[in-house]
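Course assignment 3, question 2. Fill in each field.
Student: A.L.
Task: Predict the tertiary structure for the chain below.
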Amino acid sequence: MRELQVIHAAEAAEVCPPMEVTADARPIEGRSADEDLAAFAKAIGHPARVQILRLLARHNACFRDLADALPLAPSTVSQHVKILKEAGLVRGDVEGPRACYCIDPRNFRRLKILTAAL
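Answer field:
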């Protein structure tokens, strides 16, 4: 396992351009909030996915860097990233042979808020 390489700022902006930051008016209690939290919990329910989120919370990264930073086969890392993307916690961009990823800030913030509201 090796250290994750940091993508340069210009390259990171290409990978995951900044999202418009707006107030989140979604409820933190009730059925909708419970469904959101359950979906997020399912997505982070594996230690490898937690590791991927921690890595991406620090720096945007391309797939090869994620795969090299984790003690898993690249195909396994790919499956875990796919689950995180489907849950909305990770955004990514595939450009030719390069696939790069970042945290989806709005949904990551939602996960933190819903967890804190337990």
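Instructor remarks: The chain has a mean pLDDT of 85. The chain has one domain: 27-116.
Grade: pending
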